[in-house]
Amino acid sequence: MNTSILILFVAISPGIIQVAIAGCCPDGWMPHKSRCYYVGYETKLTFSAAMVYCHVRGAQLVQFESYGEYSFLRNLLKKTQASDAWIGLSDQKHEGIWQWIGSKGFATFSDWAPNEPNSANGGEDCVGFFASEDYKWNDFSCTDKLIPVCEKSS
Ligand SMILES: [Ca+2]
Ligand SMILES: [Ca+2]
User: Fold this and answer.
1) Is residue 85 a part of any domain in this protein?
2) Which of 22, 46, 62, 121 could form a disulfide linkage to 149, CB 3.0–4.6 angstroms apart?
3) What separation in Å is there between the alpha carbon of 119 and the centre of ligand 2?
């Protein structure tokens, strides 16, 4: 192999490796539009513990970039009859302003359950799928224990 061919090979090989990895989710993760999702069905955690749960898996609590992404997950939780599940959205910083934990951006749409968010019992700042209200959104107390829904890139 002469020098120029060797250099070319070294230059393109990282690209080949990336192509091989892209589009794959780890075992047990659900693929959807080049993202991977994991529902911790057996693990009920506070909001901050759920954040850690996702972080140690190289992920974060789910963030909805689109209504389609939300619908996909809502349908998944419905189908599997999951219990209440955390979304990476809260108004802990500014009451009534719902902000994503991951990007710090603001929610661009919502699908609150009837009479929610109600900030019940002196304050509820963390959002989750509300199983008893057709998996629409509820503001829960951040210390409530819900199952985590994690998301990462594929
Ligand atoms: Ca997302
Ligand atoms: Ca509520």
Assistant:
1) yes
2) 62
3) 5
